[in-house]
Amino acid sequence: MTATERHLAEQLNLRLRHVVLMLRRAGADQPITSQQLSVLGSLEHGPRRMTGLADEHGVRMPTMTAQINRLERDGLVARGRDGADARVVTVRLTATGRDRLAAGRERRIGFLAERFANLTDEERTAVAAALPALDKLLGTSETRAP
Amino acid sequence: MTATERHLAEQLNLRLRHVVLMLRRAGADQPITSQQLSVLGSLEHGPRRMTGLADEHGVRMPTMTAQINRLERDGLVARGRDGADARVVTVRLTATGRDRLAAGRERRIGFLAERFANLTDEERTAVAAALPALDKLLGTSETRAP
DNA sequence: CCAGCTAACTTAGTCTAGCTAAGTATTCGA
DNA sequence: TCGAATACTTAGCTAGACTAAGTTAGCTGG
C-alpha cells in the first residue's frame, strides 16, 4: 500500500458517511425506498428471475423474496412462471410499478441535479473526469450476473 | 436545470447503487457495522451528548438511543451524566471501543486502498481532483451541529 | 415563586432490509 | 430411476430507521 493509495482511501472513507447521509436525504418524503427503486430499475427492460435479481443486488435469495413480496403487496410488480423450468419464478413490472419507477427516478435525479447546480463549471468538470475512475473503484462490472 | 446538471445527476444516480454495494462488501466479515463504526468515530475526541450524536448522524433521538444501547451492551461505549444539566446523557468510548474503532477503520481503509491500487496514476489524480467538488455536492458541512 | 411550557432522553410499537437454517418442488445426471 | 443439485419460500433472528407517548429536569412569566 503506497502513501497515495492510503491517503486517498482515508479521504474517501471520511466522505462515505456523507454519501449515506445524502442518500437518506434524497429518499426522504419519497413513497418508495432506494432499495425498491433499485429493484424496479432492474425490471425496466423485461422480466427477471429471483436469482438474477438477488445476484445483481448483492443479496441472498430470502432477502429478495421478502423485497418482491413487499413490491407485489404494493402492486408494483407481479410474479410469473417460467415456461421452460417450473422451479423458476419470474418478476415483472406492473403499469403502476413503471409509473412509480419513473417518478422516483425523476425525483432522485432532480435532487442530485439541484446539488450539481451549486457547483462551479470547474467542479462539475472535475466530477465528470472522475467518473471512469469511480467505475473502476466501485467494481461496477463485478456485480453483474454471469 | 441545465443539460449538464441533469446528465451528471443521471450518471451519478447510476453509480449510487454500486456505492451501496461496495459499502456492504467493505463491511462483510467485520465484527462491527458501518453505522456503529461511524458513531464510534464521533466519540474519538471526547464524550458527546445524545442530541449531538443524533444530529451529526442525521437520525432521530430514539434511533440513537437504540444504537448506543447496542454499543453499550457490547462494551464499546459507556453512558455518563452531565454535571451542568441533569437531563443530558453523555456517551464516551471505552478502551475496548477505542480498539474496535482503530481496527475497523484500518480494515475499511485497507479495503479502499486495495481498490485504489488497481487504478492508474491518472485515475487516482482524477479522484483526488474531484474531492473538493464532492464535498460541496455532499453538503459535508450542513450536517454538523451548530 | 411556582405552574406550566420546553428540552433531553427513553420506551413501546411498527417497518424495511439484511442474514442463516431448514423446507418444498423440480430438474438433471450417473 | 433415484439421488443430488437448483430455485425458491418460510421461519426466525438482528440492525436500524420512524412516530407517538412517557419521564424527568430546566426555564420563565405572571
| The CATH superfamily title of chain A | Winged helix-like DNA-binding domain superfamily/Winged helix DNA-binding domain
Give the number of domains of chain A.
1
CATH class category name of chain A: Mainly Alpha
Kindly state the number of beta strands of chain A. 3
Question: What do these coordinates show?
Answer:
Two copies of one chain form a homodimer. Chain A has a three-stranded antiparallel sheet with strand order 1-3-2. Chain A has six helices and three strands. Chain A is mainly α and 146 residues long. Chain A is 65% helix and 8% strand. Chain A has a single domain, classed as Winged helix-like DNA-binding domain superfamily/Winged helix DNA-binding domain (Arc Repressor Mutant, subunit A). Chain A is globular. Chain A starts with a helix and ends in an 8-residue tail after the last helix. In chain A, a hairpin with a 7-residue loop joins strand 2 and strand 3. The relative contact order of chain A is 0.11. In chain A, helix 3 packs across helix 4. Chains A and B meet through helix 1, helix 2, helix 5 and helix 6 of A and helix 1, helix 2, helix 5 and helix 6 of B. Chain A binds a DNA duplex (30 and 30 nucleotides) through helix 4.
